[in-house]
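Forum: Protein Structure Q&A
Topic: Joint prediction for protein chains with partners

I've read a bunch of threads here and the consensus seems to be that you should model interacting components together rather than docking separate models afterwards. I'd like to see that in practice. Below is the full input, 884 residues plus whatever partners are listed. Could one of the regulars post the assembled result?
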Amino acid sequence: MIRRGVGYPFTMERGAVRVGVIGAGNIGAALVGILTDPSRRHALLDGATAPLELVGVAVRDLTRAHPGVEPDLLTDDVEALLAKDLDVLVEVAGGLEPAGAYVRAALARGVSVVTANKALMAAQGNALARLAHDHGADLFYEAAVGGAIPILRALRTSLAGERIGRVLGIVNGTTNFILTRMTQGGSDYAGALAEAQALGYAEADPRADVEGADAAAKVAILSSLAFGTPLAGEEVPHEGITGVRPVDVEFARHAGYVIKLLAVAERVGESGVSRRVHPTLVPLAHPLASVSGATNAVFVEGAKAGPLMWLGQGAGGEPSATAVLGDVLDAARNKVSGRHDAPFSGDRTLQLVEAGDLTSAYYLSVDVIDRPGVLAEVAGVFGRHGVSIRSMEQSGLADEARLSFLTHAARDRDVRATVDELAALAAVDRVGACVRVLGGAA
Amino acid sequence: MIRRGVGYPFTMERGAVRVGVIGAGNIGAALVGILTDPSRRHALLDGATAPLELVGVAVRDLTRAHPGVEPDLLTDDVEALLAKDLDVLVEVAGGLEPAGAYVRAALARGVSVVTANKALMAAQGNALARLAHDHGADLFYEAAVGGAIPILRALRTSLAGERIGRVLGIVNGTTNFILTRMTQGGSDYAGALAEAQALGYAEADPRADVEGADAAAKVAILSSLAFGTPLAGEEVPHEGITGVRPVDVEFARHAGYVIKLLAVAERVGESGVSRRVHPTLVPLAHPLASVSGATNAVFVEGAKAGPLMWLGQGAGGEPSATAVLGDVLDAARNKVSGRHDAPFSGDRTLQLVEAGDLTSAYYLSVDVIDRPGVLAEVAGVFGRHGVSIRSMEQSGLADEARLSFLTHAARDRDVRATVDELAALAAVDRVGACVRVLGGAA
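Posted by a regular:
Agreed with the consensus. Here's the joint model:
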């Protein structure tokens, strides 16, 4: 029998858990609102088994208005805030530096850190986790993936004993909103993007979202918890949605699919793991197919648990603040009982697998000159690369034809070689789409 | 700054966490399989920060075969198992007694208990939680609700600081399978039930499932974590699906809904909470509408987090065993750091509200004699009780007509009075359905 520790910590007299916040933007202001709402303190105290005390909120520019934050909490001196005997530092300022320096300074003092900063985790996550471990502090970042969805804690705790086969995420609300408008509203990409920008779902410079980099940083985090792959370091291959056309959406719908930008982390064979982001044809009956608008969802395939899905608001100040708060309460409970969560090491023996070695069914769209013999020529290219065609549909364009193919499962590098050879054919105007089809787990 | 506890427990030398199991049925055998699979031990060790050691499996009848369990682990002497210096006892035998006696004996020794026994929790949950608290032990029961879905831990940790407005659960796979077959397969209730029984989704005696008692026990658990209502005690009002007819399913589909058996726990006003189970017309666009077959889902509406949904396998030995395992790892981590989780007390000030005081839109189906003036007579009854009609559809039967109504939001007691008065009319053959329509949060 394990006999160790302090007995019943919550029955002993105790002080408050001291919390400092860096950043008073959307998430920071929402968090401060929750922490300072008198009607909520009872529940917060219950959850933490110690009252939380907000000791200060650091902002860059004290001359700006910070609605919702009591002025006497504000400071522009992060060092002074860190020196206030913090138990937990919340970093919701964003950006790599100086946010990273503040987080490192806190961890080095043994102060637990809660951050929503996926860019920081993607860049420095391994080193920060090590620093936390070495100084007996927690480092939690639930809000960095899926906003309000508590998927990271579930992977870290509930599924810690489960052998996970695959994680599929719709983790970027901007692109899911755009694809939903293209699917349900008949918009083209540019129109749907403009609408997303008008509604605040997309940035003026939307590249990080629409080109897949945001989702790539998130899948690196999901994969680290599901498979023990490194948090930071090797970039996750990603492809965005800028090339998705209304004809692709329409073909998918007609064939029983919907196009989603999926962040994928999956076990490959016994010793491999693949991480990637790309548009994917998702069967309409799959639970991810009905995740619409800016909603996020994460689908996990467990060996014993079977399929599990989490769904919720992927962005926004208040939803993200609830994820931050869950982490703060966890860190507070740990502080009270004098422990911290070990950095999850997972199965470190898994190796990253090159995308070219993976197999998947594909949808390809090829615009060709409409003359006899072209289909045979095109089909011959597929055959030469060992890519087997499951179905083909031809639709007429002015003096061209569009050939839409669904393939059987094929090796990625063979499909890429097929596309390259097709593009070089005189009869082929262009290969308009080459998109994976979601199939069973690898 | 909080300064307490043992520092870095996982870096200190430590023994194994000793786990005993009572019951080797579906869940027990699956759990033993996971715990004794050599290829899984690395991940288990990681998650627990101490190795788990399975010290014995108690069964009622040693002469029966227990496939998957090493014979030298088996015992029929629970007392002897409890005396083996256990850290964690897993109770997956089921039933109230002697399971309850074993759980009480373990907790009284300070042994943490993990159970999948919702009947036990519904009957004795409050007392068991108190016993656990008094002896510094954990009492976890994730597998009692939603099988593999880690919803209880999420309510207990991630959402501990969130003000929850409503919890809506599809937490009974049998009834969801039957309703799905009636919706997608055109079966009637009896045919769908027979199919569920043939496939093992329904018991030979299906009453606990189809009459809603199983879902009622589960919503009592969900409500206790979301709103601090007592686990056991006052029965949760429940209505099953035995009265749902194909015409109801068809009308619902036609009107943009699907019929689901929902377990509901919701905040009513500032100080009230309602818990209940009943068939419900769920709008097709709602995420719960697409939860089909034996799958379970829990939908949570948070004040700040917004809507969140969890989906997964609600039953089965292996899915449930993963939930048990998550609890075992949690209890093991707590044992190593010498703490236990405080029983969640939530907002104890919330009072249970009588169903009659609630408001909801309703679907009513009334079979009437097809003669002039009947509609006016029927509509008059609605009017007298202040129930406002949103839409009406008439369909002819031989010499009768069926009137299908959707009402605006009305008080439950007024709708019941309307039904009673309608049933007493000479022109009314019967009131065939009176089913709530899911609307916005209360």
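Chain A has 14 helices and 17 strands.
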